[in-house]
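Q: What would this chain look like folded?
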Amino acid sequence: MYLLDETRTLIRKYGIRPKKSLGQNFCVDETLLERMVAYSNLSKDDIVLEVGSGFGFLTRLISDAAKQVIAVELDPKLLKVLRDYVKDRENIAVIQGDILKVELPSFSKVVANLPYSISTPLVARLFERGFDLAVLTLQKEFAEKLTAQVGARDYGPLSVMAGYKADVENLERLPRDAFYPPPRVESAVVLIKIRAPTFVVRDEKFFFELVKHLFTQRNKKVGKPLESLLQKAMGVSKAEARLITKVFSLETRVYNMRPEDFGALSNKVYPVLNGKKLAFKGHSLYVFPEVYSSSEDTFLLAEHLDVREGEKVLDMGTGCGILGVLAAEKAVSVVAVDVNPYALECANFNAKLNNVAGKFATVLSDLFNEFKSSDKFNLIIFNPPYLPVDERLEPGEWIERAWYGGPDGRVIIDRFIDGVSGHVEECGRILMVQSSLSNPEKSVTRLREEGFDSNIVAEKELFFEKIVVILARNS
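A: My prediction, written as C-alpha cells:
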C-alpha cells in the first residue's frame, strides 16, 4: 500500500517511534480514508474536527471537500510532520494540544481515526459539546458500547448518551493491517448522526454528569451512587441524602435504567441540587430554582398558622409548599395550588421529604379556575403576589409571576377575593399575608363586604414596608 511505504519513510525521516500510550496506530489504507470522507457527506459549508491528525493523510482529503479542517495533534514530532505536509492548504487550522483540554472553535462534523486510549472521555466530550455528524474509527468493543442495549454487559454512559440524541451505525469492521503498527484489537468505522432528543432534560450538562456518576456503581441500586452524589455536591449528611433518594423510590439497578429513565431522574435531581435548602420548625425543605423562595411574609404567615385536627386546608399559591406541609401535620387533607408547574413539583417533593404526601395533593390552577363550586375548605391559606409593578411590565419568568401584583399590587388579591367566598366552609377561615404597599385595609373591607369577619391579626415592620396577616372568618 502506498500509505504504508509513505508512513515508514516519514517515521525514519523524522525519527518517530509510535507511542502505544498515545494510541499511535496510523491508518495506511488510503481507500479507507476515502470511504470515511464519503461517509461524512462533506460540503463546502462544513467545518470538520479531526482528532489525532498524525501525518495529515486524512487531513488533506477532508480539506478537499470541506470548508475548513481543525486538525488537533498532541505529539510535537508528529506536529512538525503535519505542518510540513499541509502547509499549502489555507483551509487547515492546526492546533497542538490535548483534545480533552484544548479550547476548540465551532465545528459541524468530526472525521477522525481516534486514539483508542482516550475514546471514552473524548466521545463523551463530543456528545457534551455538540456536533451534527461524526465518522470515527474506534476499537470494535468500544463501538459496540455505543449501541449496547439496556442491561447488556457493554451498556454504559455512552450507550445512554447515544440513546438520548444520536443514531449510531456500525459501518464496517476493519482488518488490523489497515493500520501501522497493527493494533492488537479489532477496529470498526462508526457513523454517529445527532438528532432531536427522544426525551427532554432540564440541563443537558447535568444529565451527562449524572449518568457518568451513576455508572461508577453500575451494579448497585440507583439510590446508592445517588446518595454519594448528593453528599458530595450538596454537603448534606448521609442520613439526609438517603432521605432524599427515598423520595425518588429508586429500586432499579443502574444497568437496568433506560436512557429516558436517566432523563427523568436527572430532571428530578437537578432542581434539588441547584435549589436552596430551607430549615423551618424542624422541617427540611428545598426551594427549586424556578420557585419563589420563602421570605419574611411566608414565615410571618407560618407563625400564625392555626390548623385544627381533621380540617381540610387549601394552600393557594403554595410555592415550595412550606405552608401546606406545616398544615398537613394536623389537617386531614391539604390541597396545594399554584399556576407554576415547577412549584407543584417542588411542593410534592417537600411533602414526600416530610412524610405528609399521603394527605397532600397538588392542583395546577390559576386561583379557583380548576375548582368546582362544591369544593369547600375549613381553612384557605394565601400568600399572594402583592408587589406594585408598572402595568407595562408583564411578568416573564415564573419567579417574576410570584411577586407581580400589577399597578397597585392588587391584581391577584382582588381576583382571589372575588372567588373565595364560595369555597369556605361554614365557620371556615381565610388566612392571608399582604404588604402595606398593596393596601391591606382595602382587603379587610372587601372581605367584610363578602360576608367575612375580617381583621388584621399580626404586623411586622420591614425596611420599606409593613407586612400584615389578615384573618377572615366565615361567620
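The two ends are 98 Å apart (CA to CA).
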